[in-house]
């Protein structure tokens, strides 16, 4: 099923370059567009609207609701109130992990944002429901990372890996959790791209010295929905031993071309400091349906200097 323009995605890029050749850069860098609505999506958006939570939409309805043409004719408030009364049909069976945890239901309502082919048999576990990268964002990142061989260091249930398999010749998908690799492999089959992916169960930090690749993509755990608790998220809070900087160092030991998917409240001055004197980093804001959901930091030749 083709769902055209399912979700509007905007990028506001900010190019941050350390001009200093002798001193590490310091000081805080403000991201553009401060007026933007700062709601999250899953781990990336934890604030689903009441309307989204209470209305059941089929994939087709979802697509129609969000396509560019239809969007101009959004339902009026009165129409919204009417929609609100529409309840989940009894014929709909929720996945077991959603049935067992009422709090996950709001993520299920967003399922076509996560995977447009959700109804073809996509499987997720509890953690993946709130940590998978939404498909339109993953597609965009996959375009930016287009190459022959990419490592997806923390592949989870495969949100990014699947899209990399469409733009890269080969993907090495790693996760420390065997269950995630099982899910990612299954979900890649749903998208018909499993044959382009090598799946590895293991700790990326341990595996890095043995890996070769053109590009490394990092989408580590941010610490669950509570990552927004502080106004500025420190790299040290990334949930891997040694924190976010250790993860970056492991990645650049493989290739200087790194894309790092990070919380929208990341302390960007730490990123500038991390690349050091003369280094550069591009910080891109990733929007989904007008909501800022995350930022991606690009390093090496992934930096778009145009
Ligand atoms: C935010 S999720 C990735 C989601 C993924 N990008 C997607 O769209 O489906 C982070 C993943 O990192 C994995 N992880 C945590 N520490 C790791 C490590 N040291 N090496 C490899 N994977 C790790 C977790 O098991 C989790 O599945």
From TrEMBL:
Source domain of life: Eukaryota
UniProtKB keywords: Cytoplasm, Methyltransferase, Nucleus, Phosphoprotein, S-adenosyl-L-methionine, Transcription, Transcription regulation, Transferase
Biased amino acid composition, Acidic residues: 37-55
Keyword Lyase: no
Annotated Gene Ontology cellular component terms: Cajal body; cytoplasm; nucleolus
Pfam families, per the entry: Methyltransf_15
Region spans: Disordered: 21-86
Bias kind Basic residues: ranges: 74-86
Subunit structure: May form homooligomers. Interacts with CREBBP/CBP, EED/WAIT1, EP300/P300, NCOA6/PRIP, PPARBP/PBP and SMN.
Function, as annotated: Catalyzes the 2 serial methylation steps for the conversion of the 7-monomethylguanosine (m(7)G) caps of snRNAs and snoRNAs to a 2,2,7-trimethylguanosine (m(2,2,7)G) cap structure. The enzyme is specific for guanine, and N7 methylation must precede N2 methylation. Hypermethylation of the m7G cap of U snRNAs leads to their concentration in nuclear foci, their colocalization with coilin and the formation of canonical Cajal bodies (CBs). Plays a role in transcriptional regulation.
Protein name: Trimethylguanosine synthase
């Amino acid at each position: 099923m083709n769902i055209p323009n399912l979700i509007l995605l905007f990028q506001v890029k900010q190019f941050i370059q350390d001009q200093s050749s002798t001193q590490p850069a310091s000081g805080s860098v403000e991201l553009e567009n401060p007026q933007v609505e700062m709601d999250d999506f899953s781990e990336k958006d934890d604030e689903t609207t009441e309307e989204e939570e209470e209305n059941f939409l089929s994939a087709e309805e979802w697509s129609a609701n969000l396509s560019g043409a239809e969007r101009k004719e959004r339902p009026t408030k009165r129409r919204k109130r009417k929609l609100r009364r529409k309840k989940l049909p009894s014929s709909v069976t929720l996945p077991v992990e959603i049935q067992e945890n009422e709090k996950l239901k709001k993520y299920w309502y967003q399922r076509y944002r996560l995977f447009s082919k959700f109804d073809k048999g996509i499987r997720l576990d509890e953690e993946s429901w709130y940590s998978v990268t939404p498909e339109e964002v993953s597609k965009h990142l996959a375009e930016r990372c287009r190459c022959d061989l990419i490592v997806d260091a923390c592949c989870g249930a495969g949100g990014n890996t699947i899209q990399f398999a469409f733009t890269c010749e080969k993907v090495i998908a790693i996760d420390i959790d065997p269950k995630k690799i099982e899910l990612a492999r299954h979900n890649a089959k749903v998208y018909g791209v499993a044959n382009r992916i090598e799946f590895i169960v293991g700790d990326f930090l341990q595996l890095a010295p043995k890996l070769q690749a053109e590009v490394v993509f990092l989408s580590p755990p941010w610490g669950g929905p509570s990552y927004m608790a502080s106004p500025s998220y420190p790299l040290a809070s990334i949930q891997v031993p040694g924190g976010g900087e250790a993860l970056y160092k492991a990645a650049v030991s493989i290739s200087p071309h790194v894309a790092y998917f990070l919380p929208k409240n990341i302390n960007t001055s730490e990123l500038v400091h991390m690349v050091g004197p003369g280094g550069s980093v591009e910080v891109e804001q990733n929007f989904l349906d007008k909501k800022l959901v995350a930022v991606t930091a690009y390093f090496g030749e992934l930096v778009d200097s145009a």
